[in-house]
Amino acid sequence: MEISFRGKRVLVTGAGQGIGRGIAEQLWRTGAKVVAVSRTRSHLETLQNEYPSIDIVELDVGDWDKTREVIESLGHFDALVNNAGIGLCQPFLECTPEAFDTTMNINLKSIINVSQVVAKKMIENKTQGAIVNVSSQASKAALKDHTIYSASKAGLDAITRAMALELGPYGIRVNAVNPTVIMTAMGRIGWADPDKANTMLSKIPLGRFGEVSEVVDAVLYLLSDKASMINGVELPIDGGFLAT
Predict the structure, then answer these.
(1) Which InterPro entries match (predicted)?
(2) Is the pTM value of this prediction over 0.70?
């Protein structure tokens, strides 16, 4: 099955590293005109050094007004990947209002903000576009020290369903992916402790963590015309974790 985004403009947030970078790179390989957003300039510069035709935008999506202004200025997009996110892990009894507010600002408010701007332009241009929100298995299952993060991702799943309902009549599809632990550069470091890793691996029937490419492939499929009847789905990419 060949997927092409030739002639399509796609916005990817959180594109400086990890899953977001992998998505931006693969979209470029399949012909898309990619606009990559990250708050870290150095990550964007290394991305553009490898892929000079990818447009880069340094932006902290946690700033509502600035984000709205910048995304408005970027013009019309055919597709959007909301990948920007933050994970502040605290035990339930030690959760702070600061961690809650910071997490919800990035993981929920920024996605509403960016998606509103992009979707309005899709509607104005009568574009039957696609949006994918990067959620987490933490939205579906309790994970130690993940109270606030899990709540934010459960909220993102709810936002995904609401967007699918309200944007569907305009031909705009909205879906989410819900990965398990993914072996990004940070993931390999964060899960290097065998005791920590084995506790999670024991709950995954396939017996391993995911690779970035496995999330990327699912996201590109959901963005593509091959998924033209898929709308409002939360797709686990977890090796069966949620089946146990």
Answers:
(1) L-xylulose/Carbonyl_redctase (IPR051737), NAD(P)-bd_dom_sf (IPR036291), Sc_DH/Rdtase_CS (IPR020904), SDR_fam (IPR002347)
(2) yes
